[in-house]
Amino acid sequence: MKKLRFIALFLLGIACGKPVAESQPVHARAAANPIPPTVSAARRTPIVVVAHDVLPSVVNIQTEATMRRRNVDPFFDPFGFFGGQERSYTSQSLGSGFVWSSDGIIVTNNHVVEGASRITVNVNGGRQIPAKLLGVDPDSDLAVLRVDEKGLTAAPIGTSADLMIGESVVAVGNPFGLSGTVTTGVVSALGRSVPSQDQSRTFTDFIQTDASINPGNSGGPLLNIEGKVIGINVAIYAQAQGIGFAIPVDRAKKVIQDLLQYGEVHSAWIGAVTATLTPEEAKRRGHSLQRGAVVVRVFADSPAARAGVRSGDVITAVAGRPVDSREAFSTATATLAPGQSVQLSINREGADSTVAVRAGEPPSNLGLRILEEVAGLRVADERRAVIIDEVLRSSRAAEVGLTSGDLIVGVNGSEVSDTRRLNTLIIAGADRSSIVLTVARGRYAYNVTFPMGS
C-alpha cells in the first residue's frame, strides 16, 4: 500500500510538471503580500507576477544640488567688475533605483545623482531615508548608494549573457515616489553604442528595448519574464520614440563590486584589439571560419602577448562561450578582474587551439602609449588644453594632415582638457576598433578616426 501511494504521488508530481519533493523558491514579495485569491489565473500573467514581486525593490531617488550664481547690474556693471551679489540656488531632480542587496545597497544611474549635495531614497511604503554616495562610474552611467536600513527587499539578480533578440522584458521605475511604473517590450538589439544626451561621452554595449524608458524610470531595473534583473534602465534619448536602453547586468555586477570594494572601477586589461570577422572579411583574409573576433593588434608585453596571441588569430570563444563579433568578445571580457585567468579558443590558419590569458592592470601611461603607437602623436598640457607636441613622420596623423599646435578637445565622444583625462579615456576604450579624436584648429573642430589595427 505504501509503495502504491509513493507511485501515485510520483505520477502526480510528473503531471504537475515538477517532482513533489522539490520546493519552488518564493519571492519575498509573493510570500509577504500574495496576489489576492480573487484574481483569476487568466489575469495572473507573467508580467503581472513580475511587477507584483519586484515593485517593492524599486525606489524613488530625490536629489538636491546647490548652485551659486553672481547677479550683476546689467546697466552699470554688466561684466561683474564690481563684484555683484552672489546668491545660492537649489535645484531638485528625481529618478529611480532599486535595492541591490538587503543591507542597504541601492543602484541607480550616475546622471541621476551627479552633482547632488543631498540624496534621499524613498523606499516602498513611503519612508524617506538619507543616502550616502559610495561611488560612481560615469563611463557606464552607474552609481552605488548606501542607506542605513536593514532588511530591505532586494531585487533578484539574473544574467545578461544569454539574452535573445525578441525576448520579452519589463522595465520598472518609481519616478515620483508615489507608485511604480511598469512598461513592457522586447529586446530589440544588443551591444549598442549610444552617445550621452549632452554628447560628452559615448556609452557602449547597451541593451536596446522598445519598452518605454522615460527620465523618471532611469536607474530602475530591466527584468526578464522570470522577474530577474538583466539590466539597469538609462534614459538618454529624450526625443526617442519607442527606444529604450539599459546597462547589461553582467557588466554592472563588475562595476558595482569594484565600487563597493575600492570606491572606483578597476579595469582589467588583456592587450588584444579585435574586429568582427564577417563572411566577407573571412573570404578576403582566406579564413575558413565565417564568424568570430579577429585579432587586429596585440600590444607588446601585454597579457595577450605573453599568452602567445598573435595578430590574425580568430577568437571563437571565451571561457567556452561562443564569440561571433568584436562586441561579443568585449562583453565577455568586460567583467574580468585583474589577475583573473580566462581561456580563449583560437583558430590560427585553420588550426584550433586554446590559450590561457591572465588579465592584468593596464599600465598607467597606456592611453598615451596607444595614441603614439596608433596615431603617431605626442601631446602635452597647455593652458587647460591638450596640444599636439609632435607628429611622428610617416604616421597616420601625418597622413591626415595633423600638425604641432593643433588641440585635442575630445576622444571617443568625450571632452578632454588635459593629458591625464585623455590617457584615462583612451585606456577605457582600449578594446575599441578605432580611436576618434576631436581636433581643434583655429575656429574649426573636426573628428579624425584612427583604426586600432596594426
Short description:
By secondary structure, the protein is of the alpha+beta class.
Description:
By secondary structure, this protein is of the alpha+beta class. It folds into 4 domains: 2-41, no CATH class; 42-71 and 96-266, Thrombin, subunit H (Beta Barrel); 272-358, Pdz3 Domain (Roll); 366-451, PDZ domain (Pdz3 Domain, Roll). The chain has 11 helices and 24 strands. Strands 1-2-3-6-5-4 form a 6-stranded antiparallel β-barrel. A 6-stranded antiparallel beta barrel has the order 7-8-9-12-11-10. Helix 9 (366-375) packs across helix 11. The chain is globular. Residues 1-26 have low confidence and may be disordered.
Shape: globular
Just name the CATH architecture of the largest domain: Beta Barrel
Low-pLDDT segments, ≥5 res:
1-26
Distance between the termini: 77 Å
The CATH C-level class name of the largest domain: Mainly Beta
- Indicate the radius of gyration in whole angstroms: 26 Å
Give the strand content: 35-45%
* Category by helix and strand content: alpha+beta
Biggest sheet, spatial arrangement of strands:
1-2-3-6-5-4
Question: What percent of residues adopt helix (DSSP H or I)?
Answer: 10-25%
Helical stretch tally? 11
The total beta strand count reads: 24
